Amino acid sequence: MEAPMGGHGSGGLPRTAEVLASESGYAALLIDSALAKRLASNEGARLAVQRRQDQNLNLKRRSNVEALLAHVSGQEAHSPCKSCHKGYGPWNGCVVVNGQTCGSCANCWFNASGSRCSFHENNLPQHMPAIGVPQVSANTSFAGTAPMAAGMAPAGPGGFGQSGADPIAQIFKDAIDRVTADVRANDAHALFHLRIETAARQLALVSAEYAAFLAQQPGHDPSQHPHDAEGSVPEAAMGEEENDA
């Protein structure tokens, strides 16, 4: 069971997530990511109680520190996510911070960067009931994310109106998960590479659609557009650098 503490100490002053994390036995935390700094200043709600008291947690990793701070300051979910229900994650309880960690709970943010959590924003219909009343905090600027994602919800986990086996939808889902991990890791090189790869995939898709469009036109001669028929990127999409060379 969790150890709810409330957000105030004996003097009536609110205790932050950083303070409660320290009181839970996790001292000298390295709080250097933007998310960790936001969470650290939130009002604390509970002490963190490990499922296995003898387990040494790796709190040198940024996302793990973020998970701890989220756990001591977030809201208990109405019902645990699938992973917490199975007993995964370092702490007792399933805790969510509204608008943060891509909707995933603190335990899943620690274990797998949140991507496997059934509350993850990619699974928005499951995430929405996780907490009843939105948590009021300084992070309300992120509240605009939910309505935008809600418009995509009818597509379901398969995404984009396709079945769950749609390869294009899976590509986008994987790209989103990788971007989230790269941003959190603050790895600029990996982020740029992923952006380039995503743009290349999009160009390839548009090129293939263009080739299919041409093939349906009356009197179209595929021999006049050999590259389009192969699904390569049209010359008009190659940018201006080669033209200036």
From TrEMBL:
Residues 217-245 are annotated as: Disordered. InterPro entries: DUF3716 (IPR022190). Pfam families: DUF3716. This is Uncharacterized protein.
